[in-house]
Structure formats: structure tokens, C-alpha cells
Specification:
Strand order of the largest sheet: 2-1-3
Radius of gyration: 10 Å
Number of strands: 3
Mean pLDDT: 94
Distance between the termini: 5 Å
Order of helices and strands: EEHE
Low-confidence stretches: none
Number of helices: 1
Strand content: 15-25%
Amino acid sequence: MVVTGPDGKSVTVTVADTCPGCAPGSVDLTPTAFQQLASLDVGRLHGISWTLV
């Protein structure tokens, strides 16, 4: 899956499982993948998009 952040940066990740506590359409990224899009201090990113590849 390719996840694109609100500023256009993107990261390719592997889907490992579901996120039962997440809202529909949300993605729970590893810290390493999240840091490719924003600082961990942000906590949650809004305005992301994802595409299955």
C-alpha cells in the first residue's frame, strides 16, 4: 500500500493486520513508516490517502 501524507510525501508499506480500534478507512502505521510522513510528535495525521499496489 502507498500512503500519501497531506504534504505529498509518501511511503510504501506492507499491510500486516487490521486495526480494530481505528475508524473505517484509517491506517495504523509503524513508527518508522509514520516518520516518513511526519514527526511522531504529530500523533495523528489527517488528510492522508492510501492506494493498494
